[in-house]
Design goal:
single chain, mainly beta, four-stranded antiparallel beta sheet, 1 helix
Length: 251
């Protein structure tokens, strides 16, 4: 769905927020509770559990009900359903993957991580799911590695996963307790996060020699959000009223 991302790129006007350059936030049509942007395009799920794909600036309904979360990965789109079953496919043809999960994240290098309703953490090894240590309520897998947040809003990083490495990594490392984050998204030398009040932050100073960065920087002029995703410079997010927002960043 490169055409969708290209159109978004040309629709926005330059602006600056702190050390990272953001464009003006654009509100897209429709309402979604969850969105994902990745190598296979932009996808969304509304409050009724309907799965959509963004074609240009129009949401195309793919399947009418039963969807919980979706991740636009590298080789496949991964998704969970309301019964916690798992699917992977191209959006038209789906394969059932064994297991029961509530939230799933696939990187562009096909590193797939997920959590179940008990906050247990799993990594897909290409054949089946392997449970790892720790408990998270949300997880992200991307170019800046694997990050997650707990039900108590503590942010963690999985060492040695920076660069979207095909590895389970080391033991979870606490990054911060404050701000209390409820959602994180791993991008290229960038991690975005939303605190429990809905404020958006980015992690400053992430690079290969310092994969956890140095501090959180609050982004001003943003609607209160509940979920965000990032792919290269494209940011997609939904606010607390299910409105859909897009942005382009430079850093």
């Amino acid at each position: 769905m490169e055409h969708s991302l290209t159109k978004i790129l040309f629709l926005l006007i330059a602006g600056i927020a702190n050390g990272v350059k953001f464009q003006q936030w654009e509100r897209l049509e429709g309402k979604m509770k969850h969105v994902s942007v990745g190598a296979l395009g932009v996808w969304g799920i509304n409050s009724g559990g309907t799965l959509f794909r963004l074609d240009g600036k129009t949401w195309t309904q793919i399947d009418p009900s039963g969807w919980l979360t979706v991740s636009s990965g590298g080789e496949y789109i991964w998704a969970t359903r309301t019964d916690h079953s798992i699917r992977k496919g191209d959006g038209e043809n789906w394969q059932v993957v064994s297991g029961g999960l509530v939230q799933i994240e696939a990187s562009r290098k096909n590193n797939v991580w997920a959590v179940n309703r008990s906050n247990q953490i799993y990594r897909y090894n290409g054949i089946n799911w392997t449970m790892t240590s720790g408990r998270l309520q949300q997880i992200t897998s991307g170019a800046s590695g694997v990050w997650g947040t707990t039900s108590g809003h503590v942010t963690y990083y999985r060492p040695y996963t920076y660069g979207d490495q095909e590895t389970t990594g080391g033991d979870w490392q606490v990054i911060s307790v404050t701000p209390p984050m409820k959602w994180v998204a791993s991008g290229d030398d960038l991690v975005l996060a939303i605190d429990r009040s809905g404020n958006l932050y980015y992690r400053n100073g992430i690079n290969v020699s310092q994969p956890t960065g140095t501090s959180w920087v609050k982004v001003e002029g943003v609607p209160l959000l509940k979920q965000v995703d990032v792919y290269y410079s494209v940011v997609m997010a939904v606010d607390t009223e299910d409105n859909i927002w897009s942005n382009i960043i430079q850093y």
